[in-house]
Design goal:
The structure is a homotrimer. By secondary structure, chain A is an alpha+beta fold. Helices cover 19% and strands 29% of the residues of chain A. In chain A, strands 8, 9, 10, 11, 12, 13, 14 and 15 form an eight-stranded antiparallel beta sheet that branches. A seven-stranded mixed beta sheet of chain A has the order 2-1-3-5-4-6-7, sandwiched between helices. In chain A, helix 1 runs parallel beside helix 4 and helix 2 runs parallel beside helix 3. Chain A is elongated, with a radius of gyration of 21 Å. Chain A starts with a strand and ends with a strand. About 2% of the residues of chain A have low confidence. Chains A and B meet through strand 2 and helix 2 of A and helix 1 of B.
Chain lengths: 267, 267, 267
Amino acid sequence: MITLSSDFGSPYPGAMKGVLSQWTDSQLVDVSHELPRQDLRQSAFWLRETLPYFPPAVHLVVVDPGVGTDRDAVVIRAGGHALVGPDNGVLLPTARALGGKGFELFRIETREEATEGTDRTGWPPRLASSTFHGRDVFAPAAGRVHEIGIDALDDDAGLHRLDDYESLRFPEAVVGESAATGTVLAVDDFGNTITNVPGSFVTESFGGSVSVNGDTVPLARSYAAVDPGELLVTVGSHGNVELAVNRGRGDDGFGLTAGEDVHLELV
Amino acid sequence: MITLSSDFGSPYPGAMKGVLSQWTDSQLVDVSHELPRQDLRQSAFWLRETLPYFPPAVHLVVVDPGVGTDRDAVVIRAGGHALVGPDNGVLLPTARALGGKGFELFRIETREEATEGTDRTGWPPRLASSTFHGRDVFAPAAGRVHEIGIDALDDDAGLHRLDDYESLRFPEAVVGESAATGTVLAVDDFGNTITNVPGSFVTESFGGSVSVNGDTVPLARSYAAVDPGELLVTVGSHGNVELAVNRGRGDDGFGLTAGEDVHLELV
Amino acid sequence: MITLSSDFGSPYPGAMKGVLSQWTDSQLVDVSHELPRQDLRQSAFWLRETLPYFPPAVHLVVVDPGVGTDRDAVVIRAGGHALVGPDNGVLLPTARALGGKGFELFRIETREEATEGTDRTGWPPRLASSTFHGRDVFAPAAGRVHEIGIDALDDDAGLHRLDDYESLRFPEAVVGESAATGTVLAVDDFGNTITNVPGSFVTESFGGSVSVNGDTVPLARSYAAVDPGELLVTVGSHGNVELAVNRGRGDDGFGLTAGEDVHLELV
């Protein structure tokens, strides 16, 4: 199985699937092509919350605002999975989540110059376009990794171990006994506003209230615990404190977006 | 084969596919993740118009405004298919369409408390989140149903026959000789406005006209029978009277949306 | 493998997948269901830029503003691939790209009248709806083509060779030594504005500038070569001159949309 994740929308994922199909007829699974566009931190969050639910697989990931610059293309081996994508940090939180015993990075060799003789499966990747490495670099690399097997990356001529790479870490919340200060990591499609404050800060207080940047709001286990249209604070499926509106949008209700600060006080 | 339908947009379906892939490597087919959000009646309509075109399969369906409340999780066996989702009625019209000889419901047992020892495939579902039963309850159940086989549901320890369940029926139109009063059941992505008036009310009159809430409009077999931008009334692919605009949006043209009344008179 | 491309959005592709699954359990691959709606030229462009990346396959394509009129339904055999869709020209540029030695068209026979006895797999296609040939005509035809094999189309009773068909050609740019006049062929999801001017017009001048309809803009190999929010001209992944904004939308930046004229002068 090869999974695909990108911020491409449509129709660019189609060409990546075409290239992957040159390598294998095993199943291609779309994870998302609507990752927050060119937003490494939000995309990294969603990848970390999603890819670890798969059994070991090759995951092609393209969120790549630096396409065509000299940033490397990498394969990360972690927990039996392989992550293929740009060396811009977007893969790192997932690598840490998958790799209990750590993870290993390999740089994907790309050709210095366009070569007429590139084989039809595109390995090593030809120079080709400067604007669509998803098709021209990452998809052939993912196909290649799938073909040789995740355990055999060390022996592939087109892959080189890399110790120096771009990292990406989510900011950590400051959590006290009755107050916490954090950041909005992501807003989902429903408008649920996901903070970096651990759910444990509120789980003992369900049924009570919490002040969010000064406004007092009910703390509830599920959206439907408050009336439609009402604000609530809950613990989302990722285990973090989430700001929501039952059958509405939490980001609008709380006036918050990704990257903004949140101050919570139990009341 | 397991199909997936939800109102999740992106990226939540990815985690459900991950969980399903823990159970099987058979094909996962996206039906839609853009079902009308938290709208049980419109979603039920689209499911009934879509899932019966499949050969017998396991269909995972998550449109679940009551997630985290005490509504049951169910599997419905109908016509050789299995429908897995919340007990809120959204599956019922499809169950009736599939189950010529009726259908059977099974309640999915969920654990009373979070259990550390949940196996990696998540069966029976662990308590886990109160906000993402698609991942934590329904996907493991669909994986389990696929594994044991649709015929063997009775023998599974985690499934219990259920006689009392939420129903959902579409309103019926009142149809006379030359007039009909109905309701808009759904509006599709093109803006085609689908009523509950049976197509037979107009099929004898193609080429003539019909009054829609007082405005007289041509009755035509296909969109392209009128000029671009012009209103028409036709019979849609579901067999019902549909209000449309050739190369435009019928909902805008007629000023109607799902749930509103429509009065038709042949003229 | 059967690929699916359409301008349907959601949920209509689901019913097509259901019908295809009646014919085969081989993989169904979504290329795009967000092709520019009812826009034959832009859709034809994206199909030509995407489908040739696949290994030989059956490609179901439905962009069909004339659904329900008497336009034919066709299968095109080209380069080992089969393209199934409406005879409105949308398949032609892809057929030319795939078919080095040319291509062959077959008309799909449809029944004159609805027949109760249509087999469950729908071949030859029943009359059925006038509004959803994707489900009722093209999907059964694609399933049938997949079943009998692309090499055996001549022998199928429901397919007839056709010499007269709708064509579609992209306009050609007029390219001189230092000036070129062309047209915007398509705008992608990122807002990148793709012209029909061959990339070779600018590749010697990277690092310099070009005037676009009178405004002077840097010529660069990659988006990130200019600051975020800045205009640039580059060569896109299709090999054509593309008007872009780094981390922004080129169509907004240049005030252009598909079909409009572009005059370029090297400066």
